[in-house]
Design a protein that fits this description.
The chain is an all-alpha fold and 154 residues long. The protein is built from 7 helices and no strands. Helix 3 runs parallel beside helix 5.
């Protein structure tokens, strides 16, 4: 479970500057968190592709190794949207959500650099346990604003 150590190390480093993460990423469902994790890793891997810490190969391996879990989360998220928006509106709503998630990470991860993201992605790609994805999502998706907000409330 090397990736848990990597995430813990990255989180500890960030904790020097920021307050601890909340128990869930923005109070989102597991399905939304998994979708957000996948999109965050995809977008940041594209952003990091020109540097020494290019992790696109690791992202592709992660995506392939967890395809059924990630697709299941996307289907679950879409099913919830069908209940809210109907069949025709669900696709548009899912597209809007996905684009919003991608835009959120277009400038990079709020507290991790390419080197840390590469190591985390490598570790997640090697793990076959879907529970590890859920743990990673909670730890990696906490935003700077939620961390600072928690700190200010203390």
């Amino acid at each position: 479970m090397h990736f848990v150590k990597t995430i813990a190390a990255a989180a500890s480093a960030a904790a020097l500057l920021l307050a601890p993460a909340s128990a869930s990423a923005s109070g989102s469902s597991d399905a939304e968190n998994l979708r957000r994790l996948d999109i965050m890793l995809m977008v940041t891997s594209l952003r990091c592709r020109m540097g020494a810490d290019d992790f696109q190969p690791q992202y592709r391996e992660f995506s392939a190794n967890h395809l059924s879990t990630l697709n299941g989360a996307a289907r679950q998220l879409e099913a919830g949207l069908v209940n809210q928006h109907g069949a025709s509106g669900a696709k548009r709503a899912l597209d809007r959500i996905s684009v919003g998630m991608a835009n959120e990470y277009g400038q990079g991860h709020p507290w991790l650099g390419c080197r840390e993201l590469k190591q985390i992605t490598t570790d997640l790609a090697a793990s076959r346990d879907p529970a590890n994805l859920r743990i990673a999502a909670v730890e990696l998706l906490a935003s700077v604003s939620s961390r600072v907000g928690w700190s200010a409330a203390r």
